[in-house]
TrEMBL record:
The UniProt record lists the keyword Methyltransferase: yes
Similarity comment: family membership: Belongs to the methyltransferase superfamily. L-isoaspartyl/D-aspartyl protein methyltransferase family.
Name of the protein in question: Protein-L-isoaspartate O-methyltransferase
Record EC number: 2.1.1.77
One example of a Gene Ontology biological process annotation: methylation
Annotated localization: Cytoplasm
Organism: Paractinoplanes hotanensis
Stored Pfam families: PCMT
Listed Gene3D superfamilies: Vaccinia Virus protein VP39 (3.40.50.150)
Gene name of this polypeptide: fxlM
Keywords recorded for this protein, A-Z: Cytoplasm, Methyltransferase, S-adenosyl-L-methionine, Transferase
Root EC class: transferase
InterPro entries: Methyltran_FxLD (IPR027573), PCMT (IPR000682), SAM-dependent_MTases_sf (IPR029063)
Keyword Transferase: yes
GO molecular function term, any single one: methyltransferase activity
Length: 412
């Protein structure tokens, strides 16, 4: 007799309950009003037709729109990140919120948290995203969200001032509208790219500049419109190995780097180890290496297609020290059952010096900075002259702002 397996798909109600349990168990949801929002808002209504309930309620991104090159231009962000950002915004019933980058689902979560006495304005630059968001919000019962088509770089002054501005698109800068439209005591939550590394920052005004009280590694689709500021990509092996540069001061000889990759490689190990689950260590060491006053890039590889040639610590965001014709990147090799060991692998004429420097920097981070939990991140107006504090400081100059990453975060 033929056997058949009956697969029961979860109902949306069950799937929402499962998602809330997962986000709570993982620590992303701690506030009851945020749990209630995730338990209430029907995420599947905002997903493209044909998305299964399992996919719609997985703790993952749902792609909703792609550009002509196939790259994602809009998505429903991952629930863990939405929960993190909403909690970071410290919303109350009655709060006023501006969301930059729309889609509808996150705006509905926000509307649920701030309640009928609150205000949610959501701005997107893509008219199709705006139309889809309006339709889905109406269907889900959140027609009170105002969805505006425009460049989020300008915010939406007519709806302000806001208790929170939540930016859900990767930005390399903080345009003035976002801070100007904040109410006193308001919070700006934004994924800011600094030397290629994007961190979701919880920013509050203080003393004429913005100070980050929290920072979390994250990824978003890049900003379009006036704030468009793509990174430079240097293909080392076509698209299989790409060096990403996010600092106009860093110049490389692309042909020389490609030639270096054909030559011998040098690998060194550091004495520094980390548990693979120690996400904070990886986030901090990336920013520490990016903060050094020297040419810096990020290596991005297709692990399968570069196996045997390149084996970086992180396949998307691997810190890389550079000269014009050589490079060395961070590695991670298994040390024992539970720990992994940082190291460096280098190519090109300066491989010896670069790998040695990388090992010294990793060791210095372990000895002096690791316990400090990362840099102080502050955002100043462009052109601000900062007094020398004697501490290591990476300055990221952009059109509107100057971001400073200072190590250690407070003077010892
Ligand atoms: C990750 S999606 C937003 C996700 C959404 N908040 C959700 O519900 O999960 C990023 C959005 O930002 C939009 N975007 C890109 N540049 C923009 C800009 N300058 N102003 C407003 N929206 C922009 C894109 O069209 C895209 O829809």
């Amino acid at each position: 007799m033929p056997t058949s397996e009956v697969v029961h798909e979860l109902t949306p109600d069950d799937a929402r309950g499962r998602l809330v349990d997962l986000l709570t168990a993982r620590g992303w949801i701690t506030q009851p009003q945020v749990a209630a929002a995730f338990a209430t808002v029907p995420r599947h209504v905002f997903a493209p037709k044909g998305t299964s309930v399992d996919e719609a309620y997985a703790d993952d991104v749902v792609v909703t729109r792609r550009g002509p090159d196939g790259k994602t231009t809009s998505s429903i962000s991952a629930p863990w990140l939405q929960a993190y950002m909403i909690e970071a915004a410290r919303l109350q019933p009655g709060s006023r919120v501006l969301e930059v980058g729309s889609g509808g689902y996150n705006a509905a979560l926000l509307a649920q948290v701030v309640g009928p006495s609150g205000t949610v304005v959501s701005v997107d630059i893509d008219p199709q995203v705006v139309a889809n968001a309006r339709t889905a919000l109406e269907e889900a019962g959140y027609g009170r969200v105002l969805v505006v088509c425009g460049d989020g770089e300008d915010g939406y002054a007519a709806g302000g001032p806001y208790d929170a501005v939540i930016v859900t698109v990767e930005t390399s800068d903080i345009p003035p509208a976002w801070t100007q439209q904040l109410a006193p005591g308001g919070v700006l939550v934004a994924p800011l790219r600094m030397r290629g590394h994007t961190r979701c920052l919880t920013l509050q005004p203080g003393d004429g500049h913005l100070v980050a009280s929290a920072s979390l590694q994250c990824g978003f689709v890049p900003m379009q419109g006036h704030g468009r500021d793509p990174v430079r990509r240097v293909p080392l092996r076509g698209d299989d190995a790409v060096l990403v540069l996010d600092d106009s001061r860093t110049q490389v000889d692309a042909d020389a780097l490609r030639t270096a990759l054909d030559g011998p490689r040098l690998e060194l190990r550091s004495p520094v180890t980390a548990a693979i689950s120690d996400g904070e260590a990886f986030e901090a060491i990336h920013l520490w290496l990016a903060s050094q006053p020297r040419p810096y890039g990020i290596l991005k590889v297709d692990r399968e297609r570069t196996a045997g040639l390149l084996d970086p610590q992180d396949r998307f965001f691997c810190p890389t020290l550079l000269t014009s014709d050589s490079f060395a990147y961070l590695t991670l090799r298994q040390h024992d059952e539970t720990t992994w060991q940082f190291g460096a692998q280098g190519f090109g004429p300066a491989a010896g010096a670069l790998t040695g420097d990388l090992i010294d920097l990793v060791t210095a981070w372990d000895q002096h900075e690791r316990a400090g939990g990362g840099p102080q991140i502050s955002v100043y107006s462009a052109g601000t002259r900062l007094p020398d504090t004697g501490r290591l400081r990476l300055l990221v100059p952009r059109r509107h702002t100057l971001t400073a990453l200072t190590w250690p975060r407070s003077s010892r």
